[in-house]
Amino acid sequence: MEKAAIQTLSSQQTRGLAAARQVAIVVGASLFVALCVRITIPLPGTPVPLTVQNFGVLLVGLLLGSKRGFAVLTLYLAEGAIGLPVFNPTGAGGMAQLLGATGGFLLAYPVVAWLAGFVMERGRRTFARAALGGLFGEVVLFAGGLTWLAVLTHSVTQAFRWGLYWFVFAEVIKVMMAAGIAVQWQHRRVAQETGQQ
Question: What is the value of pTM for the model shown?
Answer without folding.
Answer: 0.89
